[in-house]
UniProtKB/TrEMBL annotation, chains A, B:
It comes from Pseudothauera nasutitermitis. The gene is recR. The keyword Zinc-finger applies. GO terms for molecular function: DNA binding; zinc ion binding. InterPro entries: DNA_Rcmb_RecR, Rcmb_RecR, Rcmb_RecR_Znf, TOPRIM_dom, TOPRIM_RecR. Belongs to the RecR family. Transmembrane segments: none annotated. This is Recombination protein RecR. Residues 80-175 form the Toprim domain. Keywords: DNA damage, DNA recombination, DNA repair, Metal-binding, Zinc, Zinc-finger. May play a role in DNA repair. It seems to be involved in an RecBC-independent recombinational process of DNA repair. It may act with RecF and RecO. NCBIfam families: recR (TIGR00615). GO terms for biological process: DNA recombination; DNA repair. A zinc finger (C4-type) spans 57-72.
Length: 198, 198
């Protein structure tokens, strides 16, 4: 008498998407089944494929289809500078400034004690191993200037500073409380140039 | 140098979801790949399965895994009354009242000229064929009391009335338990017009 189980399953599964509650999961399921079966098939396929082929780059930790991503494998990048960002989108913002030709490390998150994300969950040991490869001389912290991003920068600075690395932070050209993704490239470039020793 | 194509594909595919723009598609993709691969796998599977097995019930047009859904196949329902609703969720609301034991027809939408959804797109001929099966005596219109729902009810009423069927509409009025003071004037006015003999 109730709805078909495959429909209930789909509605329920859609709730794994961030910000999607029961009502909007239902709306999404109806929309996909009723108005966009091609889009739904494409999404199911893209999701399956992404799960199959994506892994984390061994060096920079960002999403990659190969063990080492193309950027990390590029010998023209300056391997002495390592820029630490929270997410791949932040990396893209910095690349877009054309003001940095070093390498990156993508945390894939930030310290967030309230969400149970501490140094272990953020796998900071992987960053430490990467930064202490003997080639990296300076680590530039480009986490967001939010409370969590600042706390993350502080913790990383302590961990890496204790290991004799020069650690710097993007200057506060970035508005306090601002997220890199929402800042114009010129400001980010300036913040990069004026980075200060942590 | 850019993001892996399978990641871009996933982000792009997520945009087929209603209300999901580029920024939130990106956030969803990161979340799924980074924090909820199990949820993502389940979603991809549930979507594939729903696309495979779900069709529209031949009689009531709602989503069903069989040609005729269990409700329509139930001989204990009163086949002389047919309640027309916009979406499966509306059907569920009416079932929940336990005040109706007839059958349903689910439009899977509403007339919406601005979105290019006219009588043809809504497949009103399927409803007409269903309602004129010789068994249905009364069609109860339970579309929403929005502009589009009212226009839909009006059009359906004309089409079915012309074929000699009794057509009724859910009454408008003061909600049960409602205080006049907190009900909008339009509703109170309507309740006055539609007053019934005590
Ligand atoms: Zn890499
Ligand atoms: Zn049915």
């Amino acid at each position: 008498m109730s709805s078909p189980s495959s429909l209930d399953e789909l509605i329920d599964a859609l709730r794994c998407l961030p910000g999607v509650g029961p009502r909007s999961a239902q709306r999404m399921a109806y929309h996909l089944l009723q108005r966009d079966q091609r889009g739904a098939a494409r999404l199911a396929h893209a999701m399956g494929r992404a799960l199959d082929v994506l892994r984390h780059c061994e060096r920079c930790n960002t999403f990659s289809e190969t063990d080492v991503c193309a950027r990390c494998a590029n010998p023209r990048r300056d391997a002495r500078q390592l820029c630490v960002v929270e997410m791949p989108a932040d990396l893209a913002v910095i690349e877009h400034t054309h003001a940095f030709d070093g390498l990156y490390y993508v945390l894939m998150g930030r310290l967030s004690p309230l969400d149970g994300i501490g140094p272990r969950e953020l796998k900071l040991d992987k960053l430490i191993a990467r930064a202490t490869d003997g080639v990296v001389e300076e680590v530039i912290l480009a986490t967001n200037f939010t409370n969590e991003g600042e706390a993350t920068a502080h913790t990383v600075a302590e961990l890496l500073g204790a290991r004799g690395l020069k650690v710097s932070r993007l200057s506060r050209g970035v508005p306090v409380g601002g997220e890199l993704e929402h800042v114009d490239a010129g400001t980010v470039a300036q913040a990069l140039v004026e980075r200060r020793t942590f």
